[in-house]
Amino acid sequence: MSGKKSAALALAAAAVAAAAVVARQEVKEYKSGVVWPEPKVVAPGEKPGDPPADAVILFDGKDLSKWKGGEKWEIKDGYAVVRGGDISTKDNYGDYQLHVEFATPEKVRGSGQGRGNSGVFLADRYEVQVLDSFGNKTYFDGQAASLYKQQPPMVNVSRKPGEWQTYDIAFEAPRFDGGKVVKPGIVTVFHNGVLVQNHFELQGGTYYDRPASYEPHPVKQPIRLQNHGDPVKYRNIWLRELTPIVVKNPEGK
Ligand code: MG
Fold it and tell me: How far is the CA of 88 from the centre of ligand 1 (A)?
């Protein structure tokens, strides 16, 4: 490189650096003016799937005392086995994050809907299907992690029969004004950590024998686990009720 050229390059570099300094000086931080409350501090679980500090523990492997009908199910070795009827939470919940672990029977019996069938009913009537969908074909909107007869999961991430699986569900209950739906129910599901239902808008109750339709109900309802005649196991069930963070100056800045 000639002396002239390198001098010109050095000059150009100096000009760029100077411009950057000017630009930095001119940048003014954007502030929205919105006054947010400070988000509550919550200690997370030790490892993924463990309940955070603000969770309501619905089943810790020891007893089903938080569930109506829980006495019918068998409890052993830190899990519960479906027996003789559905069980429903004694308390009611509206909008929540729900963690459920389940395992379909190791000994494979039956096929289609008759293999490892159970279900997590949000608000007592919107079923996230539990099924052994490992190499077991059925109608797609009835396989594991479907919103029953409304929406198949985006992918099938089922583990083998007998292996523990997780559902992490976010649920926003529908809102009604008299007989009218003013906001449909919304469901998001992660199956074994994989997003399979993304903010799905429920069309109504999930029925076997008729199309989905809404029947107005109070926001807070029980969560129900289904007995479909198969000895599906459950463990580590917890939820967190959702409290939206609310701006302190909704009228403006
Ligand atoms: Mg079911």
Answer: 15
Give the neighbor-by-neighbor strand order of the sheet with 118-122.
Answer: 67-68, 87-89, 224-225, 118-122, 126-130
Q: How many A from CA of 245 to the centre of ligand 1?
A: 34
DSSP string, 124-137: TTEEEEE---SS--
pLDDT per residue as tens digits for the range 122-140: 999 999 999 999 999 999 9
**112-126: per-residue pLDDT in tens?**
999 999 999 999 999
Fold of the domain spanning 56-241: Jelly Rolls (2.60.120)
Is pTM beyond 0.85? Reply is yes
Instruction: List the domain boundaries for the chain.
Output: 1-30, 56-241
Instruction: Provide the residues around ligand 1 (an ion) whose CB is within 5 A.
Output: 117, 119, 226
Write the DSSP symbol of residue 45.
P
